[in-house]
Amino acid sequence: MKFQGCGRRSRPAGDSAPAAAGPYAIERGTMGAGALLSVDVQPALTHLQPLHRARVLTRIQTPDGLNWGVGRCHFVNTLSGRTAVRAATAPPELPRSDKGRRLLRTTIRFLEGKRPSLPLVDGAPHLIPRATRTGDVHRLAVANGSADSAQVRIHLPTPRHPVRSTPLAPLSQPTRAAVATNDDGWALEPELPHRGWAVFEW
């Protein structure tokens, strides 16, 4: 089976580095110090063979630290189509972590292309965003499904100003809340309680 930019074959993946036989253990990022993500609970991994124009984001390593193959890669074809492929065959079983979230966000921004627009949310493990647009008005509602309070942060590729925010807390009246502005978005200044909502409008 061939993907656009990354092939799946029976032989090991990689460019000039040979893949080691044996079990796989971790997925390591190729940039900087490299994120370490566990893949030892995956039922199987696909051996990927990226084309020469593909960008390799991670590599799989054995428990001994030897190269096993490519973990994730991005590719832009001659028609400007974008493809992201990863070796994990059961993505829902990948462990949750901040490092894994950053990798996923890198892929989201890549797939958006030259005009990214999606708001990304962080500040707690279980924040649930819902974005809508009516005419020129954008709204983003974020629910806190975490057991603890959350410091909600919104990341936008091109921050919009001004923004209005309304926290909705259980058994409390809706009130406007202050928003701190940073280089890539906003942060809700009061913490959002468990089962609370924050509605942003710009």
Which secondary structure elements does this structure contain, and how are they paired or packed?
Layout: E1 6-8, E2 26-29, E3 36-38, E4 48-50, E5 55-61, E6 67-76, E7 82-86, H1 98-112, E8 120-122, E9 127-134, E10 137-144, E11 153-155, E12 164-168, E13 179-182, E14 185-188, E15 197-201
Antiparallel strand pairs: 1-4, 2-3, 2-5, 5-6, 6-7, 8-11, 9-10, 10-15, 11-14, 12-15, 13-14
* Contiguous uncertain segments of 5+ residues: 7-19
The oligomeric status of these chains comes to single chain
User: What is the helix content?
Assistant: under 10%
Strand order of the largest sheet: 3-2-5-6-7
Q: How many beta-strand runs?
A: 15
Radius of gyration: 20 Å
How is the main sheet built? 5 strands, antiparallel
Q: How many helices?
A: 1
Globally, the shape reads globular
**Category by helix and strand content:** mainly beta
* Total domain modules: 2
What does this structure look like?
- The protein is mainly beta and 202 residues long.
- The chain has 2 domains: 6-112, no CATH class; 120-201, Golgi alpha-mannosidase II (Immunoglobulin-like), CATH 2.60.40.
- It contains 1 helix and 15 strands; from the N terminus they run βββββββαββββββββ.
- The protein has one helix spanning 98-112, and strands at 6-8, 26-29, 36-38, 48-50, 55-61, 67-76, 82-86, 120-122, 127-134, 137-144, 153-155, 164-168, 179-182, 185-188, 197-201.
- The protein has a 5-stranded antiparallel sheet with strand order 3-2-5-6-7, covered by helices on one side.
- The chain is globular and about 60 Å long.
- The N and C termini lie far apart (45 Å).
